[in-house]
Amino acid sequence: MDHMRTSPAEPSAVAPPIPESIADLGVRKTFLEELAIKFLYLAGPSSLSQLAEMIRLPHTVTDELYRWNRKEQLCEVIGTDSVGFPHLAITTQGRSRALELLSRNQYAGPAPVSLQSYVQQTQAQSVRHIVVHEPDLERAFANLVLDKKILAQIGTAVNSGGSIFLYGATGAGKTTVAETLGQLFAQDRVWIPFAVEVDGQIIVVYDPMIHQKVPESEPPKSDERWVLCQRPTVMAGGELTIEMLDLEFNPATKFYTAPAQMKANNGVLIIDDFGRQRMRPEELLNRWVVPLDRRVDFLTLAGGKKIEIPFELIVVFSTNLDPATLMEPAFLRRIPSKIKLNMVTPEEFKEIFRRVCERTGLPYSAEIADEAAQIISNKFKEPLRACYPRDIVNQICWAARYEGKQPRLDRNTVMRAMDTYFLSAAGDTASQQS
């Protein structure tokens, strides 16, 4: 079991071994030979070394693929490069073959891994192998003002490896807590494949917009079809539909893109504003009743075939709606950790205000922050929400930018910011109209 790390060290699982032959790849030889000829057609005349780098396979394995293509007269050797590797070019027959293959499937990326390899590696890197302790949580959440009880609940939830339900009123900080949880996981490293092959079909998994590649001064010796990344965090909000939870087939390129939960494997998937998606909450939960229980998911290929993939992630449901109205008790049982984030106390409000001022370079005044808290409660009849200090300071900075002045924290700027930010009370509106 791996302890959470404060800086990248060793990956959570052993690096996938370097394949020494085509047999070691776990992918059909015919598929790889076809991929090789597509590469040569798209790249133009290239050295074996260049092609090996593009297809992410060792030179010995790449040479084995191109030897077969040369034997079939699909490519030819036109010279050697500076270090003696053969320089290859596609033949007329090879060009026709490549066009035929591209009409079936336009995938021309790194060689995929087998489904079996993906399953084994993902299970070996499971979030259930993560162990965090109180100092780990305190470091990760140092920028937030959270009650010790809430931190303990979060730590317990992470160690469970199960899903988490964050709930509470708007502005209580649920999204911020969920995103910080993702940053906690990002301290660890896992291996993500570029793509997975299933029955000749390609599923692209690696997404540079989601998977943060770990920079290495000396990359570990490993199968280059895998990328060493931080544990991923994927966030899905109101745009989420039931279709987005299955494989996405592109009819133009004729290969698949992995759904959000597959991209989030070995990390965190945040369902923000749960209950406001473009599907009913019970639809989502019915879809995931098996994954949440058994840690396996079933995805559907275009022909209707179902494939089983790991569901090795922590799902964080975040909502400001009443959980009892969103799901039945049977579903709530499948989410073992339920954490309520409340409104902040006046002391917490002032501490958040102080930190926001510190980050924005505004001189902090405890008296001004205390007065702001009283005005929010008494004049605007609002509870103290964790988001208010940030939003008030933003209003002050925006107004100063408009006026071409340096932002200042005083009673006048705070009152002006709050009058803009909060809805006027009914009595104020009436007096203004009379």
CATH architecture of the largest domain: 3-Layer(aba) Sandwich
Record the strand order, biggest sheet.
5-9-10-14-13
CATH-wise, what's the superfamily of the largest domain? P-loop containing nucleotide triphosphate hydrolases
User: Would you state the CATH class of the largest domain?
Assistant: Alpha Beta
**Average pLDDT taken over every residue:** 89
Q: What percentage of amino acids are in beta strands?
A: 15-25%
Shape, per Cα inertia axes: elongated
- Summarize the main sheet: 5 strands, mixed
Weakly predicted, low-confidence segments: 1-9, 429-434
How far is the N terminus from the C terminus?
Answer: 69 Å
- By CATH, the topology of the largest domain is Rossmann fold
The overall strand count is 19
The whole-angstrom Rg is: 27 Å
Total domain count: 3
Number of helical runs? 18
Structure description:
The structure is a single chain. The protein is α/β, with parallel strands linked by helices and 434 residues long. The chain folds into 3 domains: 28-108, Winged helix-like DNA-binding domain superfamily/Winged helix DNA-binding domain (Arc Repressor Mutant, subunit A), CATH 1.10.10.10; 116-340, P-loop containing nucleotide triphosphate hydrolases (Rossmann fold, 3-Layer(aba) Sandwich); 346-433, Helicase, Ruva Protein, domain 3 (Orthogonal Bundle), CATH 1.10.8.60. Helix content is 41%, strand content 17%. It is built from 18 helices and 19 strands. The chain has helices at 29-43, 48-55, 59-71, 92-104, 115-124, 134-140, 148-160, 174-185, 260-263, 281-287, 289-294, 323-326, 329-333, 346-360, 366-378, 388-403, 411-421, 426-433, and strands at residues 2-3, 46-47, 75-80, 86-90, 113-114, 130-131, 164-167, 189-193, 195-198, 201-204, 226-230, 233-236, 248-249, 256-257, 268-271, 296-300, 306-310, 314-319, 337-340. The strands form 6 sheets. It has a 5-stranded mixed sheet. The protein has a 5-stranded parallel sheet with strand order 12-15-18-7-19. The chain has a 3-stranded antiparallel sheet with strand order 2-4-3. Helix 15 packs parallel to helix 17 (411-421). The longest helix is centred in the last third of the chain and has 16 residues, at 388-403. It is elongated. The model is unreliable at 1-9 and 429-434 (pLDDT under 50).
